[in-house]
Amino acid sequence: MENYITSSTGAGVKRVKKLASSRAFRMSEGVVIAEGERIIRDLPLEAQIQTLYLLREKKDKYAYLSKRAQEVIYCSENVMRAMSDTSTPCGILALVRRPSNVFSSGNAVIADGISDPGNLGTIVRTAAACGVKNVLAAGCCDAFSPKVVRASMGGVFRTAIVECPREEAVAHARDFKIFALDMRGENVYNIKKSEFSGRYALAVGSEAFGLSEQLKAAAFKCVSLPMAGEMESLNAAVSLAVALYTVEYALK
Asked: Among its keywords, does the record have Methyltransferase (predicted)?
């Protein structure tokens, strides 16, 4: 029998809304909300979709995704609107098992004090796109909030993300050679690729406060991006993206 819900005040809807709003509840449940066809379609094969909520009218359109879910629940428009974190729900939402936070081999990105979900999501997305599998979120906003998941375009499921207070960041990054993005650092384009040998971590701080003193002190080298005119800084996610692509693909 088809599981179909029409009440936006039911227990299932309340649970999804609580998962969307409460970091502690997401942690205790071990579940992340993923919304949108593209993000859910592109989930890695090892990602476990516990529950898939589908707008009933889009049952056929999303049938290919239903096969991946342990449970499929069809719902009315008012229910989807109540659960969605967007102003115009696309009709598909998934509860996905929270991915592992155990660092793998390879390099890392350190996001230091990033409070904006869009910026943090973009940083995670960039790391995943560059093949960097590890992200240290030190004193950042919740890395698994719906806004971050959406901004990362599912990158949170393709990277191992360790969340910790800023004061613990250096201990978590002890296995990496840290390169800190700082406007007074050495021009990254003048650095030899060989300096990034071994496991390195590229660190970026918030636009408001920059990198913490702990990470600056632990850095192997501070690096910067050249800028024309009187501009002194870029958006944190943009800075990280330019520097990471430079290191991974441009340095000789």
From this structure: yes
DSSP line for 43-100: --TT--EEEEEEEGGGTTTTHHHHTTEEEEEEE-HHHHHHH-SSSS--SEEEEEEPPP
**Both tokens of residue 232?**
């002194």
What's the one-letter identity of residue 207? E
Say how far apart CA 239 and CA 108 lie, in whole Å.
Answer: 15
Taking residue 220's Cβ as centre, other Cβ atoms within 10 Å add up to 15
Pairwise CA distance, residues 103 & 85, whole Å:
29
H or E element, residue 15: helix 11-21
Let me know if 66 is exposed, middle or buried by CB neighbors in 10 A (0-12, 13-18, 19+): middle
Tell me the pLDDT tens digit for each residue of 229-243: 777 778 999 999 999
Cβ-Cβ contacts under 8 Å for 127 (sequence gap 6 or more): 109, 133, 134, 135, 155, 159, 244
What whole-number distance in Å separates Cα of residue 178 and Cα of residue 61? 46
Q: Specify the pLDDT at position 36.
A: 95
Query: What's the pLDDT score for residue 44?
Result: 95
pLDDT at 230: 73
The residues with which 53 forms a beta bridge, in sequence order, are 73, 93
The full 3-state SS of 157-199, as one line of letters, equals HCCEEEEECHHHHHHHCCCCEEEEEEEEEEEHHHCCHHHHCCC
Do you know the residue count of the chain?
Answer: 252
